Amino acid sequence: MDDCVFCKIIRNEIPSKKIYEDESAIVISDLNPQAPHHFLAIPRKHFAGIHEVPGEEETLFETLFRAISETVKREKLNEKGYRLVINYGEKAGQTVHHIHVHILSGREFHWPPG
Ligand code: 5GP
Ligand code: ZN
Hints:
This protein has 114 residues and is of the alpha+beta class. The chain contains 3 helices and 5 strands, in the order αβββααββ. A 5-stranded antiparallel β-sheet has the order 1-2-3-5-4. The structure holds guanosine-5'-monophosphate and zinc ion (ZN). Residues 1, 4, 6-7, 46, 98 line the site of zinc ion (ZN).
């Protein structure tokens, strides 16, 4: 997608701090962190939401969670506790319409979320 900020990051047209990358996903530091550790796990293929991923592309989920798991281990987030968040749609607070999983860690998180 030409005007998608995460597609631009994936194409290296916008700089980012990459924590992890493989053939199907990247993990970067969030520009506006909401916790001491705040990363975004992003599939290289552009879909706005997880419900838009067709059956033949479902390996995306496996590879995205592998990227998250690797990041948790590399950054030792399992020792601190961590929260994963996916926003979809304006009411849920989605601002970038390319699937991404927020990985948040390093502080207390409350329930229910705001
Ligand atoms: P959303 O609100 O869609 O769930 O999350 C989008 C996230 O992307 C936000 O936390 C925002 O700070 C982050 N973000 C937006 N633009 C950029 C950017 O250019 N670089 C990085 N690293 N993060 C970005
Ligand atoms: Zn995109």
